[in-house]
C-alpha cells in the first residue's frame, strides 16, 4: 500500500490546520454560512436533514487495518457507533457536530487519511477496481496510476471551481468492476501488441438525471503523459462546460453537445500545448509509487485444498470468494447487506473486526467496493473457514454477493437533504422479501440499485433492476427501471411505466423476477433475458390487473 | 475605479482603464484589458507584448473559468500585471496566486496579513503551475 512521505503528511496536516481556522471563523461569525459552505464542502462536510454528514475519502478504495480501525473509532467517538460505506468507495458519518469536525480530520491525518475534495465542484476521490493487485484477470495494477492521479488532483489550483463535480475511475483488468464508463473520466489501462501499457481515456460518462456512457476520447495515451492528458481534458471542461444550469453542467453534457470528435480535437490541441510545459511527474515518480504496490510475500506452498463439508461455509465460498492470481489464495468479499439491513452500514465493532481480520489474514489490506461491500484482497485459502466463522459471529457472513440481496442504495430521505424519497426502507423490504438465500441463488446474478432522487447516487441507471424514488405531489413514488448494466457491456436501464408506492415497488420487483424465471434459457442472467425478450413481457406482468385470488 | 488593496509587483501600477476583450482588438493604444468569464483568453495572445494589465473578473467566486484564463496567459509568456477582481475571497487567494495572479482587487477588502497567511497555507504543492514553485515530485526527484 502507498505510504505518505513527509510531503504527503505535511499536506494533510496543513489541511487540518486550515479547516480548523475556517471552522473557528465560522463559529465566531466572521464568515457567513454562504461563505463557509464551499469551504466545508471541500472537506466533505455536508449539512444534511438532521446533522452534519462527514464524507471521508478512501483513495481508490484501499485501506490498511490501522486506517480501518480508526474509521471504527471515529464512529464510536464522534458518531452513533456506525458508518456508511458509499458507492464511491468512501465512508460517511451521519451525525457529526461541526465543532468536532477539525478533530476528526486530525484523527484521520494521524493515519494518513483525509476528507479532501470529497464534495464540491472539484475533482473527487479517484475510484478503482476493488480487486486491484489481486484479480486473476488483471493486466496492469491500476493503483500506482490512481495514486499519481490522487496527488495531481489534490488541491489542484485551476480545477477547484469547475462547472460541477468531477469523478475519475481507473481500472487495469478486462472485467470492469468500477463502472468506469459511467464516470466523468474513466481510464482503462491496456496493452498494445508490443506489450506497452497505455491509458484509454473514456470521457463524458455519468449517471444523474441524464445518464450517458462515455465515448473513447484518447485511445492509447502513454502512462508518462497521463497527467498531462487529464489536465487537458479538465481545462477544456473548465473553460467550456456549461455554467448556466447546474443540471447541464457535468462534462457529459459538454461532450454530448459539441460531440466527441470536437471535444477530442480541443483536448488534443490543449494536450499538445501542455506537453511543452513539463507538468508531468517523471518516470521515477511512477516507479517510486509502484514500489509501494509490490505484491505481498505470498506463501508459494499455500494449498488450494478447501474443506467444504460445512454447507453454510460452502455456500459463502461459492458466492463471496473470488479467484486470486496467486495459487492457494483467494479474494474475500464481505457483504454489508444482511437480510433487512441498511446497505453499506457497518458498526464500529464490525469495522474493527474487519480491520483485525485484514491484519491477521490479508497482508494488512482492505478494500471498499462501489457496491458498498468490503474486500479482504489476499487471503490464504486455508484461513477461509476461520475467517468465515468470525464474520458469521459478527453478522457479516451474508452469502449474497451480486445476488438480489446485495442491494446498492443511497442514504435517501432518511438522511439526505437532496433526496425526494426514502431508499433504505425500500431496500430493507426487498431484502426481506427475498430473504431466502436459495431463492436468491436461483435468481442468480441480479444487481438491484436504488436511488432516492434523480442524482443517482444509488446508480439506479446501471442496475439490472433499478429503482428511482421521486416526489409525486408530496408522496413518495418509486419508478422501476430494467436492463441497466455496468462493466464491459454497460447499458442504461429503461423505465417500465408508471411508478409505485413503497409496497407496490417491492411487488413489481418480484413480478419482474417471476418473468425472468419463466422465460430464461440456460445460463442467462436477468439482464440477458431482458435484453433478449425486451420490455413487453415484463411490463405486461408488472402492470397486469390483480386476479381475484392474487 | 476599484480600490486596489493587494499587489505583489515592484513596477508602477497601470493607470489606464481596462477595456473589454472585444474593444481591445480595435484599440491599438490600449494597454489594459478586462476578461469576463465567457471571454477566450487566447484572443489576447497575439497582443501580449503591448499589454501591461489584465483584469480577470470573477462575478461569482464559484465560476472558476478565470483560473484557466490566468494560467493560459502566463503559460504563453505574459509578464504584466494579472489582477483578480470581483468576488475574490480570502480562501481562494492561494490557488489564484498559483495560477499566476499577482494582484487582487476584491469586492470585500482583505488585509495584507490575512492574505500572507493564506499564501502560506500549503508548505508544498503537488502540481507544477506558473508560480515557479517546484512540485513535490520535483523535490522527490531532484534533477
TrEMBL record, chain A:
<keyword id="KW-0411">Iron-sulfur</keyword>
<dbReference type="Pfam" id="PF01077">
    <property type="entry name" value="NIR_SIR"/>
</dbReference>
<dbReference type="Pfam" id="PF03460">
    <property type="entry name" value="NIR_SIR_ferr"/>
</dbReference>
<keyword id="KW-0349">Heme</keyword>
<keyword id="KW-0479">Metal-binding</keyword>
<dbReference type="GO" id="GO:0004783">
    <property type="term" value="F:sulfite reductase (NADPH) activity"/>
</dbReference>
<protein>
    <submittedName>
        <fullName>Sulfite reductase (NADPH) hemoprotein beta-component</fullName>
        <ecNumber>1.8.1.2</ecNumber>
    </submittedName>
</protein>
<feature type="domain" description="Nitrite/Sulfite reductase ferredoxin-like">
    <location>
        <begin position="52"/>
        <end position="110"/>
    </location>
</feature>
<dbReference type="InterPro" id="IPR051329">
    <property type="entry name" value="NIR_SIR_4Fe-4S"/>
</dbReference>
<feature type="domain" description="Nitrite/Sulfite reductase ferredoxin-like">
    <location>
        <begin position="342"/>
        <end position="394"/>
    </location>
</feature>
<dbReference type="InterPro" id="IPR005117">
    <property type="entry name" value="NiRdtase/SiRdtase_haem-b_fer"/>
</dbReference>
<feature type="domain" description="Nitrite/sulphite reductase 4Fe-4S">
    <location>
        <begin position="406"/>
        <end position="542"/>
    </location>
</feature>
<feature type="domain" description="Nitrite/sulphite reductase 4Fe-4S">
    <location>
        <begin position="119"/>
        <end position="273"/>
    </location>
</feature>
<dbReference type="InterPro" id="IPR036136">
    <property type="entry name" value="Nit/Sulf_reduc_fer-like_dom_sf"/>
</dbReference>
<dbReference type="GO" id="GO:0046872">
    <property type="term" value="F:metal ion binding"/>
</dbReference>
<dbReference type="GO" id="GO:0020037">
    <property type="term" value="F:heme binding"/>
</dbReference>
<dbReference type="GO" id="GO:0051539">
    <property type="term" value="F:4 iron, 4 sulfur cluster binding"/>
</dbReference>
<dbReference type="InterPro" id="IPR045854">
    <property type="entry name" value="NO2/SO3_Rdtase_4Fe4S_sf"/>
</dbReference>
<keyword id="KW-0560">Oxidoreductase</keyword>
<keyword id="KW-0004">4Fe-4S</keyword>
<keyword id="KW-0408">Iron</keyword>
<dbReference type="InterPro" id="IPR006067">
    <property type="entry name" value="NO2/SO3_Rdtase_4Fe4S_dom"/>
</dbReference>
Automatic annotation (TrEMBL), chain B:
<dbReference type="InterPro" id="IPR008318">
    <property type="entry name" value="UCP030820"/>
</dbReference>
<dbReference type="Pfam" id="PF06073">
    <property type="entry name" value="DUF934"/>
</dbReference>
<protein>
    <submittedName>
        <fullName>Uncharacterized protein (DUF934 family)</fullName>
    </submittedName>
</protein>
Amino acid at each position: 500500500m502507498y505510504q505518505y512521505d513527509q510531503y504527503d503528511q505535511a499536506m494533510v496536516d496543513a489541511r487540518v490546520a486550515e479547516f480548523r481556522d475556517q471552522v473557528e471563523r465560522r463559529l465566531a461569525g466572521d464568515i457567513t454560512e454562504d461563505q463557509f459552505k464551499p469551504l466545508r464542502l471541500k472537506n466533505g462536510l455536508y449539512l444534511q436533514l438532521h446533522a452534519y454528514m462527514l464524507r471521508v475519502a478512501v483513495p481508490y478504495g484501499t485501506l490498511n487495518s490501522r486506517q480501518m480501525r480508526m474509521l471504527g473509532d471515529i464512529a464510536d467517538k464522534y458518531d452513533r457507533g456506525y458508518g456508511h460505506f458509499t458507492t464511491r468507495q468512501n465512508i460517511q458519518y451521519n451525525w457529526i457536530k461541526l465543532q468536532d469536525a477539525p478533530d476528526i480530520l486530525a484523527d484521520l491525518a494521524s493515519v494518513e487519511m483525509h476528507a479532501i475534495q470529497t464534495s464540491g465542484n472539484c475533482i473527487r476521490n479517484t475510484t478503482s477496481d476493488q480487486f486491484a493487485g489481486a484479480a486473476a484477470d488483471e493486466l496492469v495494477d491500476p493503483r500506482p496510476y490512481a495514486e499519481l492521479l490522487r496527488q495531481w488532483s489534490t488541491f489542484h489550483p485551476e480545477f477547484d471551481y469547475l462547472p460541477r463535480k468531477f469523478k475519475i475511475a481507473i481500472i487495469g483488468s478486462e472485467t470492469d468492476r468500477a463502472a468506469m464508463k459511467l464516470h466523468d473520466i474513466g481510464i482503462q489501462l491496456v496493452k498494445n501488441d508490443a506489450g506497452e501499457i497505455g491509458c484509454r481515456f473514456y470521457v463524458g460518462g455519468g449517471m444523474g438525471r441524464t445518464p450517458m456512457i462515455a465515448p473513447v476520447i484518447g485511445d492509447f495515451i502513454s502512462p508518462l503523459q497521463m497527467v498531462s492528458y487529464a489536465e487537458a481534458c479538465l481545462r477544456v471542461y473548465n473553460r467550456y462546460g456549461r455554467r448556466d444550469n447546474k443540471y447541464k453542467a457535468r462534462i457529459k453534457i459538454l461532450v454530448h453537445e459539441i460531440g466527441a470528435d470536437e471535444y477530442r480535437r480541443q483536448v488534443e490541441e490543449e494536450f499538445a500545448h501542455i506537453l511543452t510545459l513539463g507538468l508531468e511527474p517523471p518516470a521515477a515518480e511512477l516507479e517510486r509509487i509502484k514500489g509501494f504496490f509490490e505484491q505481498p510475500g505470498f506463501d508459494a506452498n499455500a494449498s488450494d485444498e478447501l474443506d467444504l463439508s460445512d454447507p453454510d461455509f460452502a455456500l459463502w465460498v461459492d458466492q463471496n470468494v473470488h479467484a486470486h492470481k496467486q495459487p492457494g489464495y483467494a479474494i474475500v468479499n464481505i457483504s454489508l447487506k444482511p437480510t433487512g439491513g441498511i446497505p453499506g452500514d457497518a458498526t464500529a465493532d464490525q469495522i474493527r473486526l474487519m480491520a483485525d481480520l485484514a491484519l491477521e489474514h490479508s497482508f494488512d489490506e482492505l478494500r471498499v467496493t462501489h457496491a458498498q461491500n468490503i474486500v479482504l484482497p489476499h487471503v490464504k485459502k486455508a484461513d477461509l473457514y476461520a475467517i468465515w466463522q468470525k464474520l458469521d459471529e459478527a453478522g457479516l457472513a451474508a452469502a449474497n454477493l451480486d445476488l438480489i440481496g446485495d442491494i446498492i442504495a443511497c442514504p435517501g430521505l432518511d438522511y439526505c437533504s437532496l433526496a425526494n424519497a426514502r431508499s433504505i426502507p425500500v431496500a430493507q423490504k426487498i431484502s426481506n422479501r427475498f430473504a431466502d438465500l436459495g431463492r436468491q441463488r436461483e435468481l442468480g446474478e441480479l444487481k438491484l440499485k436504488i436511488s432516492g432522487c434523480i442524482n443517482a447516487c444509488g446508480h439506479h441507471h446501471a442496475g439490472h433492476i433499478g429503482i428511482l424514488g421521486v416526489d409525486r405531489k408530496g408522496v413518495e413514488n418509486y419508478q422501476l427501471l430494467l436492463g441497466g448494466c455496468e462493466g464491459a457491456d454497460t447499458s442504461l436501464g429503461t423505465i417500465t411505466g408508471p411508478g409505485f408506492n413503497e409496497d407496490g415497488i417491492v411487488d413489481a420487483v418480484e413480478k419482474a423476477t417471476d418473468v425472468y424465471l419463466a422465460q430464461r434459457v440456460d445460463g442467462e442472467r436477468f439482464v440477458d433475458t431482458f435484453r433478449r425478450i425486451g420490455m413487453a413481457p415484463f411490463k405486461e406482468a408488472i402492470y397486469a390487473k390483480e386476479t381475484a385470488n392474487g | 475605479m476599484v480600490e486596489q488593496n493587494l499587489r505583489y509587483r515592484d513596477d508602477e501600477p497601470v493607470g489606464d482603464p481596462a477595456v473589454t476583450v472585444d474593444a481591445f482588438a480595435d484599440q491599438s493604444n490600449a494597454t489594459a484589458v478586462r476578461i469576463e468569464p465567457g471571454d477566450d483568453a487566447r484572443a489576447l495572445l497575439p497582443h501580449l507584448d503591448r499589454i501591461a494589465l489584465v483584469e480577470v473578473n470573477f462575478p461569482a467566486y464559484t465560476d472558476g473559468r478565470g483560473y484557466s484564463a490566468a494560467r493560459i496567459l502566463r503559460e504563453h509568456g505574459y509578464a504584466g500585471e494579472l489582477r483578480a477582481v470581483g468576488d475574490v475571497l480570502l480562501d481562494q487567494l492561494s490557488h489564484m496566486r498559483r495560477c499566476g495572479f499577482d494582484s487582487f482587487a476584491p469586492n470585500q477588502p482583505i488585509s495584507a496579513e490575512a492574505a500572507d497567511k493564506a499564501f502560506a497555507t500549503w508548505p508544498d504543492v503537488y502540481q507544477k503551475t506558473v508560480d515557479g514553485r517546484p512540485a513535490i515530485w520535483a523535490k522527490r526527484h531532484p534533477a
